[in-house]
Amino acid sequence: AEVNAALLAEAENSEPAVARAAYRVLARTADGELLPKLVAKFAALRNGALRAEVAGFVEQAVAATEPATARSAAVLPALKAAPDVETSCALLALLPACADETSLAALKEISANSDAQQREAALRALAEWPTIAAWDSLAEIWNKADTEARRSLALRGLVRLADEANAKVDASLIAHYRELLAGARTDDERKLILGALGGAAHPDAMMLALALREMPGIRVEANAAVTRIANAIEKQH
User: Fold this and answer.
1) Per residue, what are the HEC states of 142-165?
2) pLDDT at 195 over 90
3) DSSP-assigned states of every residue in 87-148
4) DSSP class of residue 218?
5) Are 95 and 107 in contact (CB under 8 A)?
6) Contacts 24+ apart (CB under 8 A), 185-192
7) How many CB atoms are closer than 10 A to CB 161?
């Protein structure tokens, strides 16, 4: 406890190298009791460059804390009390490491109702969410995005979630792929989706890819996905 208290004090050191070293150690030693103090120190930083450098250490400490409710209990109060938009955005980036329903609900609200900078930070956090629980929120943004940049970021988050779910293909995942393909507007979007679909080792996934081979702009990618899936399922099917 005394060591951690000393490290927390050094996190305020005016010498950036000393502060970085303190955050680096605290990332490995923080627990449910210490985490709120560490997050508060992070939120109090006014050196933007230093905050960017130590954000990864704070994220590591958040992710390592159990249970998940202790993570959001540390981050959400600091987010609510954030003195400016820059601090709020830095704290929003920590929410995927919390990965619980409370943090996800906060992200959903901010992504819909805050100013442009906070909405962008919330979308980036949603796009990094570690579980499929963020799917509906990202899909809504993808379909209703007011800029191509937001649409692209939401789609990349959706494709990442689908790709990570390929380890265990089920009817729900196939439905997600159908949703993506139905909503795709350009060949570039379809190519991105096909890149993930090719990793879904299931006959239904292959049928989705087969249906796209007649589209000239994505024929190469569709054929590649079909071949990849066929090679993966040939022994079982």
Assistant:
1) HHHCCCHHHHHHHHHHHHHHHHHH
2) yes
3) HHHHHHTTHHHH-SHHHHHHHHHHHHHS-HHHHHHHHHHHHT-SSGGGHHHHHHHHHH-SSH
4) G
5) yes
6) 187/215, 187/217, 187/218, 189/155, 190/215, 190/217, 190/218, 190/221, 191/218, 191/221, 192/155, 192/156, 192/159
7) 22
Q: What's the pTM value of the predicted model, to 2 decimals?
A: 0.90
Nearest to 54 by CA among 89, 18, 106: 18
Contact 39, 30 (CB under 8 A): no
Q: How far apart are CA 51 and CA 12, in angstroms?
A: 11
pLDDT tens-digit series, residues 134-178: 999 999 999 999 899 999 999 999 999 999 999 999 999 999 999
Q: Alpha carbon 38 to chain centroid distance? A: 22
H/E element holding 217?
none
Spell out the residues 6+ positions from residue 80 whose beta carbon is closer than 8 angstroms to its own.
Answer: none
1 has a pLDDT exceeding 80:
no
User: What's the rounded Cα separation, in Å, for the pair 176 and 27?
Assistant: 36
Cα angle: 92, vertex 94, 99; to 5 degrees: 105
Q: Which residues contact 220 (CB under 8 A, 6 or more apart)?
A: none
Contact between 38 and 30 under an 8 Å Cβ cutoff? The reply is: yes
Place of tokens 């997600």: 176
d(C-alpha 207, C-alpha 225), whole Å: 10
Could you identify the residue written with the tokens 């006014």?
A: 46
C-alpha–C-alpha distance, residues 184 and 87, integer Å: 35
